[in-house]
Amino acid sequence: MQVETFKDQLYSKLRQKSQPQNDKALILLQSIENNLNLEQRTNPTAYIAQLINLLKSTKEGQDAIILLIYKILPSVPIVVVRKLIPALLEEVSKVQLDNLSLGVFGQILILSAKEDLNSPKMQQLFSLLLQQTISDKKKLRKQAVKTLQTFYQQKALDIQQVPEINEKLRTHLKVNLQENNECAQHSLTLLASLNNLIPYSILVDALYVIIEEIQNMDSKYYPFIFLSLEQVLQQNVGADQAEKLIQQLNLLQPEEVNAQHAYIQCIRQCLLTLSQSSLSLAASYLPSTLSNMAELLLQNNQKLMQHCRLEMMTLIEKIGKSTLSLKQDLAEDIMNLELESAGTLQQKYIATLTYLFSNRFDHANILDVFAKFFATIDDRTFDHCKELVKEFVHNKSRWPHVYFEKTFGQLCNGVSMSLLLSTFPLRTEGINPLDKDFDEKSNCWILYILSKYANPNLEEFLDFLFPLTNLLSLVSNANPSHEQKIIQNILFHVLEIASNSKAKIDAQHHPKLNQFIELTLNYLKKDHVFFEKLLLMIAKLFSQLITFPQLQNYSKQYISTLAKLVEQNNCTHTLNAIKVMSFAAPKQYIQEAFKKNIEKLLSSKDKLDDRALNNMDIVLQVVSAQQMTSDLWDYCINFTKEMINIPIIQKKIYKFLAAIIPKVHHTFLAEAYNLVLEAECESSSRQKRFQVILQLEQFVVSKLENYQTFIQQFLPEMVVAIRDNNIKTRLLAEKLIENIGQRLLGLDLLDQFISMVFAGLAAQSNVMKADAVATISLLVDKFYTNLKTEFIEEMTKLILLLLKEQNNEIFKSIILYVKVLIKHRHILNQYLFSQLLNIDEVSRDKNIIILKRLLMKLSKAYTVTAESLIPQEHIKLFKNAIKIEKQQKKKKNKRDQERELNKQKWQEKKNKKQKDSDFESDEESDEQQDQKQQQGGMETEVEVENNLLLKYDFKKEQFHFEDAIKQKKKVQEKEQQKQSTIQPLVEYKDGKVIVNEQKEVLGQKRRREEVNSDNEEHGQKKITRNDRKTKDVVHIIKESGSTFKSKQKAGGDVTVKGRPEPFAFIQLNPKALNKRFKNQANKAFEEVFQKKSGALKGVKAHK
């Protein structure tokens, strides 16, 4: 090491922390350095020699001397250190022992030779370090453990040849692990730090001591003990030690929360370690371990419950899955210990999980456990778990419907649909869909979960769900009844399951496959409620069946039926279905249909109607299944020539070209190239045209001459499209220009290509100039690192000259170009921004927002020199832009904080609402249970309520669960609230008419509710404030008398039982005394005294 480097590092280490000890060491180091400079000896060895001499001669400042020795000793050559070891040991041993002297001893031990480790002094030094690991002083303990860890890391090979050192460590751990709890704790710290470094035998002996003494240790040390054991167990210890340890851990019941956290981590690691040696042993202890963890789920500490739940899920995933897969003939394991049979182990494991169904456990704490357990089940192990799954479904009223669906959905991922439907068979016959327990009896709740999570085979669908497809004949579009809605719910999910089914080769021999194909074909009608669903199913499922002979036989019927539907009403799903069927149909039939549709289009090209456009859509779908021969290619090219310049169909013609170009050899593409080059292009079809050009670009890239011609012919069109209104067109143009630039870069022609684009700046149109600048910006952005700085500077000067045009489009493109330069940290000057900002005031004001955004980017990219680039007269604008940026950033941070706060509040409100609803439903269920017990356990039909009912949401098109008790309670509360709020204004009590008026408050304006006779129950109607403003009715009509009006055509009034005799009541308003309302005052009475011309006549009277 060089002297300067050594001294610099030493000074920097001492100056890192401002401490008195470091300050003394700096003064001492400066003094030694001055002396050594006089003697011309400045290497680390000289410093160590001076420090040893000082240590011999003086007793003052020994702490600073030891500190410098500790810092300098690693820089001294090892050969020199080994010579200085005797002197260092002699002098440092005289100093009071602290962490620095202990560190020096550790360095001596590490730097010593292999032969020296056998010396008594080194053995004594090692014993000293071991003794300090259980010292009362924390710093000494920490330094000793750190030193021993470094010693075992660096001297591993040497220690193996010195058995005395490992024996000392073994004895130290055995003795101190049996001492008081503090010594045991410190020894565990040492054991955990040396876990992967010490020999396996020492680790095993230490574990035996821990197993024997763990019951006698103080519980306050449990957290540390368990965490240390977890680290020790991460090394692959033997099954014997892990088994004995887990036996001891199962006997412990820690009460402190921190100890419980560490306990479940330790017991989980212990079981995982045991499973690596003997899976059968781990499986035998899994039930008791899960049972102990389940008891911790009953604690009130939320973090503990969450931690315990996660550890249970880990054990279920790692060991539980293997436990279910154990073979039945398992008798004993590798240690020749008699074990229980695999069936017994599995029964205990399942029984432990079944225990979680008891009311002691909260559903939120156990549903994740069951979800993980269900994820470990497959077809082979489902029989062991069938009863538990049934119990889970039986208790589904306890779980929130969303969590039940997710948990049961994990089972659908591993278990086949056939096993699930055999366990929960669908029953629709003999059950009334209108019954409240229809979902329970029919098991239709499983259909939604299967449609969302299952991946069934086609054979399973045909075996179990195909009979339900016959319900297609019962559904109706026009005002379906409630029963028909339930049938629609079932069919929706049945068809969804069919769409998700996977078809294998064996499915083609299934006897019900032909029936299923015929059924779907019969109901492909536009007016059928499941028409689109059937089309989606055909596109997804039948794409797997294209090689099946059955589908080939029916494909003609499918295509003809779907083609008629397209003529009626064009539909994307219908066209996709035609595309799928075209691959399955006979090639000769498809080719004939293809040519037939093309002939129809050619015959009607002078007058293209909707029907002709629909034929074109069919052609586009069928062309993907064509094998493009030379004859068919000529046929297609002739068709394209005739139709490509017709605006109404041009977009579809380009789409047609894009479909057939990849199907032929590149030698045929010259015709298509010339055709596209000569064709006119509508703005609506530009996107599809660029797709074809992008395909043709791959064709001409092989020859440079053809490629240059291609660029010259299509470059103007690409430049114009770079700022097209359609974003897809812009992206295609950018990709095409980037491809060209990439190919020319390999030929060293990129500068020439940019110069060709640069020629567009001389165009007469300002829009063309703006397009050229935007294209140059794109090329500079993509290939900045490949362009010379001088070339970019020349382009920049010429582009800035366009500012004289005072055109808004050009200005925007120049802004884009400058942004690209800022993005790549180009060297900018003040001339650029003076030209950019010193434009006319009108243009600057019109684009002030764009300019400010540009200045914001400038301030971010050039934090130091940004202000110097702005002209002095525009500094205010620059500072304003920075200010706006800070304000926007501040507002954004504030919005983010408010959004996060609102999210937390919403979550808290949601959790509180969920807890309240759960509490209410629990109270309701308890009340019903008490009532049943009082009635001697007799249950009537009214008392039987389903806690959870599976219903169907037509908007979301999915099933969902509803709490029947809660829904009923809500309806009752609403009715009671409605009845309590309605107080009749006019009542009849004890033969008297009583008018109920609101109490007036002194000092406030009197507010009354005006009523009229339109209410059926009370004959009252509220008159709104707007009605009063119209001044049509001044007085307040409390009862107009229409309540007593005859419902028949007879005139006069009728008496009502329980009501007073017919009357009318008008509350007079003092406002009527005002002259302005004099004319309107009589209108209230006109409603009561409705004048009729002629005499009153009875019902049977004739005119």
Automatic annotation (TrEMBL):
Taxonomic superkingdom: Eukaryota
Compositionally biased region (Acidic residues): 919-928
Protein name as annotated: Ribosomal RNA-processing protein 12-like conserved domain-containing protein
Bias-annotated ranges (Basic and acidic residues): 895-918, 999-1038
Ranges annotated as spanning the membrane: none
Record InterPro entries: RRP12
Organism: Paramecium sonneborni
Matching PANTHER family: ARM REPEAT SUPERFAMILY PROTEIN
Chain segments carrying region Disordered: 888-940, 999-1058
